[in-house]
Amino acid sequence: MTAPKVLISDALSPAAVQIFKDRGIEVDFQPALGKDKEKLAEIIGNYDGLAIRSATKVTSAILAKATNLKVIGRAGIGVDNVDIPAATARGVIVMNTPFGNSITTAEHAIAMMFALAREIPAADASTQAGKWEKNRFMGVEITGKVLGIIGCGNIGSIVADRAVGLKMRVIAFDPFLSAERALELGVEKVELDDLLARAEIITLHTPMTPQTRNILSREALAKTRPGVRIINCARGGLVDEEALAELLKSGHVAGAALDVFVEEPATANPLFGLPNVVCTPHLGASTTEAQENVALQVAEQMSDYLLRGAISNAVNFPSITAEEAPRLKPYISLAEKLGSFAGQLTETDIKTIRIVYEGDVAHMKIKALTSAAVAGLLRPALADINIVAAPSVARERGIVIEETTREKTGDHDSLITLEVETENLTRAVAGTIIAGTKPRIVQIKGINVEADLLPRMLYITNHDRPGFIGRIGTLLGENGINIAHMQFGRDFEGGNAIALVGIDQVVGETLLKEINTIPNVVQVKALTF
Ligand SMILES: NC(=O)C1=CN([C@@H]2O[C@H](COP(=O)(O)OP(=O)(O)OC[C@H]3O[C@@H](n4cnc5c(N)ncnc54)[C@H](O)[C@@H]3O)[C@@H](O)[C@H]2O)C=CC1
Ligand SMILES: O=C(O)C(=O)COP(=O)(O)O
């Protein structure tokens, strides 16, 4: 196997370069490349992995050129600079480092709060200019003030903890914050309007999503207390910058501290130059400690994926540990083949996919297996579908996916049964793994039939009558088709029967039609795996 190649296109700590090298991965460290989208598009096709911070915009245009890319690693938290649906559609795993810089970013928010409360940047500039304006700078005390946190996740919770330590009264708006967690943090959970009406300082800590974009809109800002101070160390675009500028000018907002901007790099902005506005150039995560943490972590995670198939902290795929990956691999192949089997037989719209995991396999990462089954199922219709994209593509098409796990009930230590429901029929196929690695079909439509899946196969359904096996063997032989194996099953003597024939050559349309004319044959289909 040739060594995977990774491009680092942002200013990651060089610690990442060393990790990649130590793991045997070729690495190109080009910290300024993220800002040059033409150059990035030109060379991205050479790489299996791309490590970034926030300066690299991974657009669908870049992804379209990323023909070898398998993983994007974000050394940090926010992945809003990556087109996740486009990456998913191409089967590219997108992973971040959800905790490595959270303390540092929370500390920056707290630093911004003090900077605002005591006007430290302006006082510093004035003092160093030799003005000694002791009477100009009258601050406010933090103790006892109401801090309103919008988004109380990892960073918001650390801010809350520090603020409680500073003797502030903390209220939080976060629809996903549980009452227990709020109690544990010592914060009061409130609705947004309540927070706007009560907070003397507001700090934002949500990700950028369609729901949070412009969460501090002109209307929302109008509901805030006169004299409010606003801090944004999350994402530009959460606050309406124009409206905030107007409210600062009118004096309704007493101060704003911003680390992030709608447009970055922010070289011009409606907030620049206004009184008591404190700005930093997206420095929230910029401490030696945090940068070391996220660089090491992202390099380890990307290496684990590229070298061992382990997935952690992916935003578009379930996690798989390095220990699980080799055990899961044959089951991924089985699930994909069962899906493919059903997909090749299904000509009408799929309504529901039901997958039952029984025995040992029920304790594995079934989300990953389901993705593989769905990819196999959809591939006959959508040739380029990949296992990362499959569940979202299925959902877009209105296909319902149901998963069930249960303990072993039959002969097999592990059994996966895939049932596909269309407008007209329901078809089920089940399989297991033999000898640790080999996928085998064990049941079709409730009929037991044990068959390994070869690259080329014939699937025949017929009425169980004498003479069929001889005729099919002769016909295939006469047409130069070599039979590798042939397995049969039936529901009862003289009832419905099925045959799975492993073959070495391609069976053309004419021969398929001829097989169909053998007495008692109901259906014949050439399958590929
Ligand atoms: N300035 C900087 O350098 C940095 C900025 N960030 C930003 O901070 C954001 C938050 O990071 P974490 O706390 O680690 O993320 P997190 O996922 O742990 O927390 C985000 C919280 O926001 C809440 N939330 C989501 N939608 C909401 C809504 N509509 N209204 C209110 N709350 C909502 C979630 O329930 C969650 O609790 C990141 O997404 C990133 O954009 C992160 C690191 C550094
Ligand atoms: O981790 C995040 O979400 C950040 O915003 C940090 O961005 P950066 O890596 O400093 O460009």
Set down the secondary structure blueprint.
Blueprint: E1 5-8, H1 15-22, E2 26-29, H2 37-43, E3 49-52, H3 60-65, E4 71-74, H4 84-89, E5 93-95, H5 102-117, H6 120-128, E6 146-150, H7 154-165, E7 169-173, H8 179-185, E8 188-189, H9 192-198, E9 201-204, H10 218-222, E10 228-232, H11 241-250, E11 253-258, E12 277-279, H12 288-308, H13 324-345, E13 350-359, H14 366-378, H15 390-396, E14 400-406, E15 414-422, E16 426-434, E17 438-444, E18 447-452, E19 456-463, H16 468-478, E20 483-490, E21 496-503, H17 509-516, E22 521-528
Parallel strand pairs: 1-2, 1-3, 3-4, 4-5, 6-7, 6-9, 7-8, 9-10, 10-11, 11-12, 13-14
Antiparallel strand pairs: 13-15, 15-16, 16-17, 17-18, 19-21, 19-22, 20-21
Helix pairs in contact: 1-12, 5-7, 13-14
The structure holds 1,4-dihydronicotinamide adenine dinucleotide and 2-oxo-3-(phosphonooxy)propanoic acid.
Describe this protein's structure.
- Helix 1 (15-22) runs parallel beside helix 12 (288-308).
- The chain is an alpha/beta fold.
- It folds into 4 domains: 5-98 and 289-308, NAD(P)-binding Rossmann-like Domain (Rossmann fold); 120-275, Rossmann fold; 319-451, 2-Layer Sandwich (60s Ribosomal Protein L30, Chain: A), CATH 3.30.1330.90; 454-528, Alpha-Beta Plaits (2-Layer Sandwich).
- The chain has helices at 15-22, 37-43, 60-65, 84-89, 102-117, 120-128, 154-165, 179-185, 192-198, 218-222, 241-250, 288-308, 324-345, 366-378, 390-396, 468-478, 509-516, and strands at residues 5-8, 26-29, 49-52, 71-74, 93-95, 146-150, 169-173, 188-189, 201-204, 228-232, 253-258, 277-279, 350-359, 400-406, 414-422, 426-434, 438-444, 447-452, 456-463, 483-490, 496-503, 521-528.
- The radius of gyration is 30 Å and the shape is elongated.
- Helix content is 33%, strand content 24%.
- The strands form 4 sheets. A 7-stranded parallel beta sheet has the order 8-7-6-9-10-11-12, sandwiched between helices. A 6-stranded mixed beta sheet has the order 14-13-15-16-17-18. It has a 5-stranded parallel beta sheet with strand order 2-1-3-4-5.
- It has 17 helices and 22 strands.
- The structure holds 1,4-dihydronicotinamide adenine dinucleotide and 2-oxo-3-(phosphonooxy)propanoic acid (HPV).
- The site of 2-oxo-3-(phosphonooxy)propanoic acid has 10 residues, from loops.
